[in-house]
Write a structure and sequence with these properties.
The structure is a homotrimer. Chain A is α+β, with helices and mostly antiparallel strands. Chain A has 4 helices and 8 strands. In chain A, the strands form 2 sheets. Chain A has a 5-stranded antiparallel sheet with strand order 1-8-3-5-6, with helices on one face. A 3-stranded antiparallel sheet of chain A has the order 2-7-4. Chains in contact: A-B, A-C, B-C.
Amino acid sequence: MKTKTQRILIDTSGGVQVIDITRQVQKLLAESDLKEGLATIFVPGSTATVTTIEYEPGLVADITKALDRIAPRDGHYEHDQRWHDGNGHSHVRASFLKPSVTIPFSNNALMLGTWQQLVFIELDVRPRNRTIVVQLMGD
Amino acid sequence: MKTKTQRILIDTSGGVQVIDITRQVQKLLAESDLKEGLATIFVPGSTATVTTIEYEPGLVADITKALDRIAPRDGHYEHDQRWHDGNGHSHVRASFLKPSVTIPFSNNALMLGTWQQLVFIELDVRPRNRTIVVQLMGD
Amino acid sequence: MKTKTQRILIDTSGGVQVIDITRQVQKLLAESDLKEGLATIFVPGSTATVTTIEYEPGLVADITKALDRIAPRDGHYEHDQRWHDGNGHSHVRASFLKPSVTIPFSNNALMLGTWQQLVFIELDVRPRNRTIVVQLMGD
């Protein structure tokens, strides 16, 4: 068994932005010689997350709206009182949604469903240069 | 170290349905020759999830009710406007709760607490034939 | 590749309590001879969770407040009707936030962002003696 730790770089526009990274992660998997194992996709940072979704514009809008239910953008945050970043809601959302997602792979392919894509979600309020860690473990 | 990727098949009734799969996963672990490692339980699909819970009828009812707070069944969803599946809320809930859960094992047993069961949660509105991926990695 | 499964013990005060465990996990990693791999931090129990957060008092307060939006402490819970623990909301929160977080490591260091700490969150209403499982897998 081997571990391969790689990075994907993306520039985001800020606000809630849902970005399909399925192909990029599958490409890294294809380039590895690993057939069966576990892919961990991890965001080093505290205002973004990764998850899976049926990637279509309707659901992207629905997710954006539902995030406002968990931590409203217009709410009061102690973090903003102290740091004046205006992203207290981004931090709360990211802590609840967590920084990683784990997806088994088999036959050198992510075991995603037909209508299931892997997405990075930018939760911060301003554009960011993001690094996403993709760790493949298996043989 | 080895990786064993297996599947559990279950038929669900739709709606919010919480199903205890602890025994089935523990059985797969017992049948493997792996003593120490990581179990990843993953749902290929975008309208279901897996997590842990103290499995008793009261909490199952409480979870069902609380899911309606994150993404109300009676809410308006763009997904439903486009696809008319009536499961926009199912998708939002599944994306927030994510498709996998990771549980370490030791001495050939999942390291769950005494009152902690592993559950699959059907979030879709209609009955489904579900495949759950159970990947055991360790030695 | 090797698997090392260890435990951290902490005494909590109950209520929502957010505890930074980054140093303790990094210390276990430093003591291991593992350079590259995956750290899984797991809570055996159904009323606590682990995640990452920018650990500062403002956000700790914001998280505490936002948890009340997912499952209000003052709400009605079937679990409490049956078991009279008064922690139905703790269970719901823990099931939604899940019992584990997975963080890749490289060069014998967790790949966390600069402003990202690993935290244990006590969600139960009373003080607890908690065991947290830290499983390091890699080489």
